[in-house]
Amino acid sequence: MQFHIHQTHHQVADFKKIFSDLKQDMQNASEDKKLGVHIYPELYLTGYPLQDLCLQKPFINSYQKYLEDLNQFTKKLKGDFLFLIGGLEYELTESGLPLKIKNVIFQVEPGKELKAIYTKRLLPNYDIFDEQKYFTQGEESCVINYQDHKLALLICEDMWSSSFHNIDPVKDLFETCKGEKISAVINLSASPYYIDKPAKRSQRAQFIAKLFHCPFIYCNRVGSEDEIIFDGASFITNEKEHLLTCHAWKADSQSLEIPQSDSPIDEELLPSPPNTWEELFSARIDSDKLSLNELSETTCHEIINALAFGVQEYAQKSGFKKFTIALSGGMDSALVLSIVALSLKEGQSLEAIYMPSQFSSPLSYDLSYELCQNLKINLRTLPIKFLHSSSKNLFESTYDEAFEGLTDENIQSRLRGMLLYTRSNQIGSMVVNTSNKSELAVGYSTQYGDSVGAISLLGDLYKSQVYQLANYINSKFNKLIPEGIITRPPSAELREDQKDTDSLPPYERLDSILEGLLTYRYTKNDLIKMGFETEEVNRVFDLYRKSEFKRYQFCPILKISSKSFGFGYRIPMSKASQFYLDE
Amino acid sequence: MQFHIHQTHHQVADFKKIFSDLKQDMQNASEDKKLGVHIYPELYLTGYPLQDLCLQKPFINSYQKYLEDLNQFTKKLKGDFLFLIGGLEYELTESGLPLKIKNVIFQVEPGKELKAIYTKRLLPNYDIFDEQKYFTQGEESCVINYQDHKLALLICEDMWSSSFHNIDPVKDLFETCKGEKISAVINLSASPYYIDKPAKRSQRAQFIAKLFHCPFIYCNRVGSEDEIIFDGASFITNEKEHLLTCHAWKADSQSLEIPQSDSPIDEELLPSPPNTWEELFSARIDSDKLSLNELSETTCHEIINALAFGVQEYAQKSGFKKFTIALSGGMDSALVLSIVALSLKEGQSLEAIYMPSQFSSPLSYDLSYELCQNLKINLRTLPIKFLHSSSKNLFESTYDEAFEGLTDENIQSRLRGMLLYTRSNQIGSMVVNTSNKSELAVGYSTQYGDSVGAISLLGDLYKSQVYQLANYINSKFNKLIPEGIITRPPSAELREDQKDTDSLPPYERLDSILEGLLTYRYTKNDLIKMGFETEEVNRVFDLYRKSEFKRYQFCPILKISSKSFGFGYRIPMSKASQFYLDE
User: Fold this and answer.
1) CATH of A295-500+549-562 among 3.40.50.620, 3.40.50.2300, 3.60.15.10, 3.90.1150.10
2) Does A117 touch chain B (CB under 8 A)?
3) What's this model's pTM, rounded to 2 decimal places?
4) pLDDT in tens, B108-142
5) ipTM (interface pTM)
6) What is the pLDDT of residues A493-547, one digit of tens each?
7) Does B451 touch chain A (CB under 8 A)?
8) Chain A closest CA to B288's CA: distance in Å?
9) Which DSSP helix (H) or strand (E) runs through B87?
10) Candidates A51, A58, A422; nearest CB to B411
11) Measured between alpha carbons, how far is residue A194 from residues A198, A229, A438, A566, B559 in Å?
12) CATH 3.60.110.10: does it fit domain B2-280?
């Protein structure tokens, strides 16, 4: 039988397009006799994640109308095929508010009523996931018969089991299928990308393929919702290798013939590979070198695609066709500019602004200029020297207290934020933030200054990873980024001869200490035992716990690791961390 | 028997103080022969809410050490009393990471091991609550025997039941207690304040007191954690009236003698008053007047206390003793200044800044001056005219495009933000934000401009409620706020003769439309049917859905309603709302 993966790319709640595209697919299947099983992602009908949207009466009313219209449509449809589609099933109160919401698979057969046949059982509720907040858990496994084939169904997280969940849907499904011949295990997913995730998915899918003696079909959505990026990359695999792989980062449809199974499932359950809290949020530190594990070339490639996709999605949804990026002459802004430049589509434009103060070195301009030449991007200079001294004069003529140091540094950064947003307002362009994860973690930025932006590209990448990505880009694109930018010592240039290392440990050690801290795995003592210096560990922990308020008001960060600052990072600001981090 | 309520006020994770205060209480009970039952709030031992803190190894290690130390202490203790204390019970992996976390009641009797006797059953998981993310649900009701008394135990949410929960701990407890004589139902709580909450708690407690034929003991914590304010206001009630009421907004200990019950519990369960999603997030609109329900005097009093308490808590935890507030001559900043002034403690100082542009009317200064005179607060003026024109000149000499309108308005607002934070940096003061909920909902503010601040006092109050609070303050404090501020038409003064009503409906209608929208209850059509004008409803919905990005980067808002912008408001930014709100 033919299995058709529909790896879709739609906007959340865009019911009009979602339902009309689906009806078109059904119409085509009916007319072209595309027999077999058509598979759509988890929550195809609504998009994902929905958060509170799924509680709102206008959302529910609209969805219910489209769903009923689809029902009428499929009842009149003719043909010999089966559609499996992710969607929501509501149980409502008399006044139309939600009592129960289920994340289900709808079965559509021509001439029949739409029917929810399976409810997601394992509702992820860690990190960015809040599904138990909204959805009611399914109680039963589901195996369907279709044209002499037996198909076992799962939704996304169901394929995982874990020591911190109290149910194991794969095990339950296995019990249900014991002794049966299953043609395929089908998983409808809406699974976000992060580093190493594609490999983990395949590994787990192949374990399940082995368990059920049949191919595993994985259908994922494409799209970027605020900080969460869905890569698609759907596949069909047997226990050893992919039989089919869809593109990442764009809609794709592919089909494969899968024969009926001739091998009944064993009586014995294979031991399941571990999927623990520790594994999920493992710290990626090389404990010999005391630095982060290096990113592979494949991973660098994936990350750059993920960031380019994410920034484009955000721009498109927000209606921006122009981008404005502030260049400092340093590494972060150069990488951001390069990635956005590489992502540009027809009809879009990108410009750079350089805003020197009295402390900016001539080299910073030269390097910014060279980068913009390489990328063919317009660069303008807005010097802040005069506004800076005018602001100081205003204060000196009003207040008795003098200021210098941090106060004076912050003025420069905030004037740049103001000018950047004035330009953004003037031409309707999107400001892309240039902070990195290391800076965010230690508060090495100015609130409402260099921390401004509509979205952050590098906020989930440590500084040492920023360098790795820059080197990767240079290796693929003929030294796009001037070597001077990569080799010069990092500096905020907010005072004379400032270097990042004046106040921070070298980035490779800083990043490893942060990774240990942010993945919840290590205490200070654990890190000191690994070989980090006590004084450095203390300094990093202190900087981290003092800067929670800066992270709170930061812009959305494209998430590319299992633990990023953002929606899944939930640490109270109110200084609780001063009490216990010293352990 | 004596029942002692310990309504405590500690910082989250401040284990040193939390455990030493508890040991001191036990020592006192032992020496002073304070017999009977001592009751502490839910999660007294850790504080609440913890969010991801409870997953972190340093937090867990530290907590476990203190817990074991307490255990050793109580084993050596002598006396005749029972302590019931809220805390966490961990089940850990071999490497010390959490496998299961339970929100429990520890029972402490002198000479015995610490013992977790009850696990919270109803884990709230709506709005700001994420307890199912962290905690494992308890399975059983708990009734304990102590000196011929039978005591029934609950933790916080357990006392509620709801159509959207699938368990009902009160009903289960009732089944367990049927035919027994219960002396008291004891509830350990960490329950946030919001408008009408105190009355709802009493009502529900009295229903349970009636059900169990005995007093209901409600022990709540005091504290403000970021946006969430715990009011304390613990009490003991019978089915009709409070037998004891603790102070709100501060630590308090009170005791009451409760006799053994002589009345066995009935066989029949009383019908439970409804607690539905709809009731929880009901819209407080007067549908005749098409305006929000008026706040009662009691509620105004509560809100002002809540805001004063919340801002002080935030300042204390962040180490601020100074406050800086920008005055515009308008209503919001005047109310914020008044509330902070009324909250000031010894050793603290408060100052105001007035930052006029070319569009500021002389009246704005006069009213600001008068207010500061009334409050005896230092006011300084930082005119932005020159910085404003310098910024414009810089743009005109660099870019071809001219600008005016919104771009020009935003510059003024952002220059003010920069100056305000420069002052904050200069003297180490806390900037209190002055935006209100109506502005936030329609995006009527400048990102990084007037929206800056460490914390927002009015972000959960509609503009019409801001006026009610101002009038309440004036009625109690001899016209503290100049009448001219209350009566002048609201204006942002960012262009010639600007009025809020140029771009927004009158606040009373705006606020009601927003309340209908934000509580998820109403669609556009529902509101139009209620009598609101189609054009106004459309305009408000449009402004709302375009401004999600501004709310995302906003500062924490002290929560005083059941639905505030902030952690419990989870709407994707990515423009999903453009699709369905038209229903």
Assistant:
1) 3.40.50.620
2) no
3) 0.96
4) 999 999 999 999 999 999 999 999 999 999 999 99
5) 0.95
6) 888 888 888 889 999 999 999 999 998 888 999 999 999 999 999 999 999 999 9
7) no
8) 20
9) strand B81-92
10) A422
11) 8, 8, 18, 14, 34
12) yes
